[in-house]
Amino acid sequence: MKTLEWNTLFGEGARRIQASTIRELLKLTQRPGVLSFAGGLPAPELFPKEEAAHKAAAILKEKGEVALQYGPTEGYFPLRAWIADWLGVSPEEVLITTGSQQALDLLGKVFLDEESPVLLEAPSYMGAIQAFRAYGPRFLTVPAGEKGPDLDALEEVLKRERPRFLYLIPSFQNPSGGLIPLKARERLLEMIMEGGLVVVEDDAYRELYFGDGRLPSLFELSREAGYPGVVYLSSFSKILSPGLRVAFAVAHLEAILKLTQAKQGVDLHTPVLNQMLVHALVQEDFPERLERIRATYRAKAKAMLEALDREMPEGVRYTRPQGGMFVWMELPQGLSAEALFREAIAQDVAFVPGGPFFAGGGGENTLRLSYATLGPEGIAEGVRRLAKALKGLLALA
Amino acid sequence: MKTLEWNTLFGEGARRIQASTIRELLKLTQRPGVLSFAGGLPAPELFPKEEAAHKAAAILKEKGEVALQYGPTEGYFPLRAWIADWLGVSPEEVLITTGSQQALDLLGKVFLDEESPVLLEAPSYMGAIQAFRAYGPRFLTVPAGEKGPDLDALEEVLKRERPRFLYLIPSFQNPSGGLIPLKARERLLEMIMEGGLVVVEDDAYRELYFGDGRLPSLFELSREAGYPGVVYLSSFSKILSPGLRVAFAVAHLEAILKLTQAKQGVDLHTPVLNQMLVHALVQEDFPERLERIRATYRAKAKAMLEALDREMPEGVRYTRPQGGMFVWMELPQGLSAEALFREAIAQDVAFVPGGPFFAGGGGENTLRLSYATLGPEGIAEGVRRLAKALKGLLALA
Questions:
Q1: Is the Cβ of A16 closer than 8 Å to some Cβ of chain B?
Q2: Residue A23, SS3?
Q3: Mind listing the domains of chain B with CATH numbers?
Q4: Which run of H or of E encompasses A140?
Q5: What is the per-residue pLDDT across B25-84, written as a single tens digit (0 to 9) for each?
């Protein structure tokens, strides 16, 4: 076979697209016997297998000509209308996307050029960093913790810079689990309105609260305030199934139109069967389903926190999530989460080192633990193994 | 509501993303009563509704934890392995994409920068032009007809230019229906190998031949010649269902790796259920299904050609397709296909004006007729209406 130097054939842009070293590491977590806190994989016991089987069969038999044919780029209208009704917007403001990951890519395509400033929390969702990075922007970051981004730091950045958009996950942030309190949401919105800025609010975990209810989203607050600059993203991945890849963006009509034009060029439309299936599944017992999901994750979070409180050595800090799927951990300064990862894998337990969640670097002593996938016993045993790995590493240090 | 000037908030890149005027026109074709030759919508009577209902239910019941969970970016391994076996390649060389449209976007992302030269046939697939245009390349074109691209013209272009890739649809081209003969494929491959160039071969219509069999693809010829530079695209859209959005790219491992990295950032993975469903559907009677599909389109093409031969006035030229879904028509010079479109819509018949298929402009007197969707009687009646519209326009001219 003749040899081609593919790297010389790719464009400049291809250099920005790299295999995440972290994703390579994560392949190790699929080894049999490994208890994994790594992937943010929803609890498989919550998947609506039987209902989906029944509904999918009915859809294909009765409306197969629609489910199997090309569909509109905007999405399957009854699903858009259902979402609009759920969120209190109009169906025309809803665009169905092939997972929220696609919405992130479309936002990059529409808003970002090379060297465009874009503002993220540090840490922020790795998949967003990856999607945006392909467009070559300049990342601005502000530190974020249990109460969301540092708003004083954000105010300082906004004095100097005008980011194309702010990408924020106000509720149960991935990876930090942070939740922006209501007052801070209001202050944030004021800053955004004053600057006439665009915010992308990623609300994938909106329904996974452990307390009495949801805080209003930035999007809801912005609508109340008559401000059209918040693009709202959410998904059925955490409440029905991630494998179906059905998510949605909600925004001002002009933004939705441009995102729709961009989507036409990237996959024509999200699979019709999947949209019809989601639409059928949300018709029945949806509030009860959400309650069941919240109860499950609440119990799993409790199991993890109890195990961490029992097992973790001094000097290790971790969050106590009020919702979502993640505990965020800080090791004592100087200790490397990647080094711990190698020790942990030897003990058959896995997590995600925190470094790649920082678009501007740093975070080497941080890590993300997902309690979403394993059962309570697996969680307890995994934390035991993790503590053992950590104590081994501390003994060496 | 406060007003934002969205056009000033979007990036430079967003200007390259436009609503195709043609797609706006096409909305008119969905009016009740319109007989449409416009969309390349596969014949709905060929959809495997019952089998899909049965298989989808079985998959969701028995393997719901896999079908509904996140999956690998590369694709569902059993489907990759099946495709590899079908095409005589290795599974690692196969990437599952969310429709071929996604493969086109990924190729743009990986190979094209602003002002990169990229070579297309004129006319070529509108969706490819749209996908590539988002990356701001410089389009080079060579005229193409019933026997594919003009290879002398191509040779001339390649003396002056080094395109990042050549995008070709060698078999039953969309929109022209063209088929590159074997000798020309061999000459083309020689030119490509001599230049060390990359070819993207879009073979969406590979199975829709009306004669005795398929010509070898450029990809197959390149493998025989030991040349790794052909990226092969095909899809289950025309042989099972477009609505499922399951397609694939096959290429040298280094190209597949880079495309996979790019795909991770754009939708994480193609829906798992859809891949499992396609895998289940190709296990049974697949050769018989392909025969049935070929027979159906062969009959539809015949119905359209008989009607055209009967109804069309002098001076109108059209192709006699040997496969695929399209007849390509040239009106007498000076006659506008868009003007005809307006007349035709008034007569309740629709088609796609050819202009947008020409990346470099031109083709105003051309149009595409799809015989895929309607039955023989609808085709005959549609052609009658089209002839009436055309005669009306000629009477005015």
A1: no
A2: helix
A3: 6-48+287-396 (3.90.1150.10), 70-281 (3.40.640.10)
A4: strand A138-145
A5: 777 777 889 999 998 899 999 999 999 999 999 999 999 999 999 999 999 999 999 999
